[in-house]
TrEMBL record:
The keyword Cell cycle belongs to this UniProt entry's keyword annotation: yes
Similarity comment: family membership: Belongs to the TRAFAC class TrmE-Era-EngA-EngB-Septin-like GTPase superfamily. EngB GTPase family.
Residue intervals of the EngB-type G domain: 23-194
A Pfam family annotated for this UniProt entry: MMR_HSR1
Species annotation: Leptotrichia alba
Gene Ontology terms for molecular function: GTP binding; metal ion binding
Entry GO CC: cytosol
Gene name for this UniProt entry: yihA
InterPro entries per record: G_ENGB_dom, GTP-bd, GTP-bd_ribosome_bio_YsxC, P-loop_NTPase
Superkingdom of the source species: Bacteria
The protein's name: Probable GTP-binding protein EngB
Co-factor requirement: Mg(2+)
Length: 195
């Protein structure tokens, strides 16, 4: 799949404010604060600032919708697990994410995990949650350029102590170098064709 057109549609918090559905498939990106969700969307669309990025974790507090090629949505969900955010704000983010995930929108979720870190308890909770609700999801390991092949091998060994997966079932991505872009877009194109 090639992305020829991408535009920001709107931000929302509650379901009544989501964009009209019209059988549009949504590919949603979720993960810890600062895992690289917005950067990944920018990399996929080849637009530097389509999704707003920040060095400060916890900036995405709304659900941001992007229309891709006039036929699918990319959805940038708020990050979770950022310690410096007040509990009340965290709780609201949790509700915002939860109401989106349990909505009846036709969605495929990409859970982003930083390849340099062992999945946190919040990451594991999110995985359980996605499985509990029977949501179709796939794992993307971000920041793949930050590790050498040797470090990557060691790190995957550590990650597998918490998480069971086959390498061919996950994506490895670097927004900086666009590594993994083609594979992910091909996968998205294939899933659209199956719908």
């Amino acid at each position: 799949m090639e992305i020829n057109k991408s535009e920001f549609v709107k931000s929302a918090v509650v379901e009544k404010d989501y964009p009209e559905f019209n059988n549009i498939v949504e590919f949603s990106f979720i993960g810890r604060s600062n895992v690289g969700k917005s950067s990944l969307i920018n990399s996929l669309t080849k637009r530097k600032s389509l999704a707003r990025t920040s060095k400060t974790p916890g900036r995405t507090q709304l659900i941001n919708y992007f229309l891709i090629n006039d036929k699918i949505h990319f959805v940038d969900l708020p990050g979770y697990g950022f310690a410096k955010v007040p509990d009340a704000v965290k709780k609201n983010w949790g509700k915002t994410i939860e109401s989106y995930l349990i909505s009846n929108r036709e969605k495929i979720v990409f859970l982003l995990l930083d390849l340099r870190r062992v999945p946190s308890n919040e990451d594991m909770e999110m995985l359980k949650w996605l499985e509990h609700f029977g949501i179709e999801y796939y794992i993307i390991f971000t920041k793949a350029d930050k590790l050498s092949n040797n470090e990557k091998f060691k790190q995957l060994k550590e990650i597998r102590k918490k998480l069971v997966f086959k390498n061919e079932d996950v994506f490895f991505y670097s927004s900086l170098k666009n590594t993994g872009r083609e594979e992910l877009l091909n996968f998205i194109g294939k899933r659209i064709a199956e719908k």
